[in-house]
Structures are given as structure tokens and as C-alpha cells.
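re: ur question from earlier - yeah i can do the single chain one, its not a big deal. heres the input i used so u can compare w yours
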Amino acid sequence: TTEIFNDNVCSLINGQAYALTVKITEASAPTVVSTRDYVGLLTVQIGEDGDASDIEDTTVHFSTMSDGTYSLLLEKFGADPSDPNDPGFGDIQIDGITLDGTTLTGSAPMLELMGGLIKAKADLVGELEGDDLTLHLDVFWLDEDGVTVLAPIYVDFTTIVEPGSIGSIDADNNAPVEYYTIQGVRVSGDNLTPGIYIRRQGENATKILVK
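and the output i got, formated as C-alpha cells:
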């Protein structure tokens, strides 16, 4: 049995007390192993009914960490892309992201934006497959008690495949063409609204941008 006497750890063996030396070491923070930059389209929408704004050529820094997790950095969130000096709300960084197959999940329970004037939290889901990175973030503004205030901000990012870079598709492939949202919901391809979609024909799947 083990008991604590005067904050010392002792082991009782056959009624005799023996002092034990307990060494507690604090785990070191994971370090960056490698970082890859993904360039694509960032779409920001405030609330369910808000207008979505697209920001092209957005860079997301995606790092592999020494503990097997991943870290994401989106710099100058909310900045005016035409003004290089606009800091926006600040950087959104999410650490401890996990990758299960191709599925990414992670969260940042406390973000400090605009130099700490704004408190927020962010939840992330996404897909990572080779050169293709797709992300969806829900960003929630918080009050001093950690309660969500205002409408959430929906942030979507996807790398864009240029038409000339898409691998050749077999001309004899007569499979029907199907369209899906980036959340995996199948939609009709007749009247697609502006946004990012997945176009699948047979075994070939690519992301497309509808403007």
C-alpha cells in the first residue's frame, strides 16, 4: 500500500514505512517537424443568412508536429486583401489537430484576436489528401464568461485545382456526373450557386469553383 505522510510519499511493506522519491517532469511542448503552405480560396460568411465573401490566393500554413498532431495557422483573419498593412482581427492558430485517414478534426477553445480585445473559439473539420486541403471552421465570439455572442462566422478553405492541371480523363468514361458540396451533400448540377463543389464522374473526382 502507498500512503502520504506530511506530503511525502511512503510505501508500507510489512508494517515498515519506506520513503520513496517521486520525480514529476512536465511534458515538453511539441515542436514543428515540417510546414507546408496551401494556397486556395477562403470563403467567410457571418451567420446562416449572411453574405459570403471570397478571398482568393489565401495561404494556410499547415505544420506536422513532433507528437504526431498538426497545427494550422491562418494569418490576418478578416484583413482586407487589397491592403497589405491591414492586420484584420489577427491570426487564427489551431494546435493539436488530429488526422484519421484523410479526416482532420481540431479546436481552439480560446483565441485572442485584436490584441486580446476579442475572445473567440474555433472548431475545425477538414480533409487532407495529398495536395488537396479542405477546411471548415466555425468561429464563435465569446463574452467574458465564455458564452457565445453574436452570430458564428463560417470559414471555408479549399485548394483550387486549375483546369489545366487536372489529370486527363478517359474519353470513353460514360459514367454520370455527380456534384456534392464540400460537406458531402449531393446537389443537382443544373443550377449550382456560387461556391466550391466536388464533381465526380466514375472514379474521377475534382473540386470546382462556381462563380
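The CA atoms of residues 27 and 176 lie 53 Å apart. not sure if urs matches, ping me
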